[in-house]
Amino acid sequence: MAEVNVLGAVRLVEQVLRIPSAHLVVAGSSLEYGPNAQPHRERDILAPVTWHGVGKAAAGLVYRQAASSMGLSINLMRLFHVYGPWESSHRLLPTAIRSVLAGEPIQLTGSAIRRDWIYVEDVVDALLSAALSEDRGETYNIGSGMELSNEDVVDVVERLTETRIARTPGAFPDGASDTAHRCADISKAKSLLGWMPRYDIASGVSATLAWHRENPQAWKSETGGRPLHV
Asked: Is 55 domain-assigned?
């Protein structure tokens, strides 16, 4: 993780130094932040509780330092819970879609977990907006600005498919990053980039369902039939 995230950031900065006109847009993570009952703001102190968050936070500091001390043009995007086509099949939404289509129950983590879900096309729009922006050396939160529980998302899948899914809440223990609140304050991206999400959770899940119907093999279980941790 350190090799990819941290040393990878150093190597990328070295390459950007060779191209004075380069403008770099980097995908960070909401896991750089620690637990917080209030929406996360870009100026919040970083307090990651996972190794992935530590690696992303360290890489982000490398990019910010390079932007400030070397004059490099780098925008850092802290992405919240990205979902949609080609998402890893072990995650919640692919698992819920497979469960409803197969008529099988779904096992869940605790009911108190909430995340900020953002559809992948909205993320692409944000990255492009940052690439074209005249504001350089900035950090932006990219999320929906709303929190959803696992149950909320499964509810949406049920509603759109008109099919009930048997659920086993609490089947898996909460992970270090599973908290009661994880939400983005996206006012800075709205103000400086002119960006805001086009998809709410219903339209994003609907688009994902349509994609899955066209690509039925894409989300075959990667676990060989073993239970999926969501």
From this structure: yes
3-state secondary structure of 112: coil
- Rounded distance, CA 51 to CA 31, Å? 9
Q: At CA 152, angle to CA 150 and CA 158, rounded to 5? A: 105
Which domain CATH number covers 46? 3.40.50.720
Report pLDDT digits (tens) over 171-206.
Answer: 777 776 777 789 999 999 999 999 999 999 999 999
Calculate helix-pair angle for 150-161, 201-214, nearest 10 degrees: 60
User: Is 189 part of a structural domain of the chain?
Assistant: yes
Which tokens belong to 120? 């992948």
pLDDT digits (tens, 9 = 90+) for 79-130: 999 999 999 998 999 999 999 988 889 988 876 789 999 999 999 999 999 9
Instruction: Write down the residue that tokens 């940052």 correspond to.
Output: 130
In the 8-state DSSP scheme, what is residue 22?
Answer: -
Residue 19 vs residues 12, 26, 41, 62: alpha-carbon distances, Å: 11, 16, 31, 18
Give the full edge-to-edge strand order of the sheet including 73-79.
23-29, 73-79, 139-142
Half-sphere exposure of 104 (CA within 13 A, CB side): 12
Range of the domain at 44: 2-214
Give the SS3 label for residue 81: strand
Q: List, as one string, the DSSP characters of 152-169.
A: HHHHHHHHHHT----EET
Report yes or no: 138 and 76 within 8 Å, Cβ to Cβ.
yes
Sign of the torsion angle spanned by Cα atoms 20, 66, 177, 45: negative
The tally of domains found in the chain comes to 1
